[in-house]
Write a structure and sequence with these properties.
It contains 3 helices and 8 strands, in the order ααββββββαββ. It has about 130 residues and is of the alpha+beta class.
């Protein structure tokens, strides 16, 4: 029942797009001192082929993360750590980090200023 309640709450939060177009800062101490509504990580970041990542502030330094990708939709919980948002996926610790389109190495994102990268070949940008 708890997982259903979490999934319902996450999907409700995902429906609220607070995309601001800003690139997240790598200074997480400063980000923690700002109001969560101004959080530069928050919102929807679009990937390729209709994929996206939705990052929603949950509590203090925690985030609800929803990823729609080739493997289907999946929900995770992450926390601010090491200059990004760290979360576990399929037994591996991943970190969402701020990037530019050039940093992603993905030609379709060239010239974009506000992006995030999870792993090589998995990046998302603001439109």
């Amino acid at each position: 029942m708890k997982s259903f309640a979490f999934a319902f709450a996450l999907l409700t939060l995902v429906a609220c797009d607070r995309a601001s177009g800003e690139t997240p800062r790598r200074d997480t101490a400063a980000a923690r001192s700002e109001p969560r509504s101004a959080d530069p990580w928050a919102g929807r970041w679009n990937g390729v082929d209709g994929g996206y990542i939705e990052i929603t502030p949950a509590d203090d330094s925690l985030y609800a993360i929803f990823v729609k990708g080739p493997a289907g939709p999946a929900a995770y919980q992450g926390r601010v750590e090491d200059g990004g948002i760290r979360f576990g996926r399929a037994g591996t610790e991943e970190t969402i980090v701020a990037a530019t389109g050039g940093d992603t190495g993905m030609p379709s994102f060239a010239g974009k200023a506000a992006c995030v990268t999870v792993t090589t070949g998995e990046s998302y940008c603001r439109d």
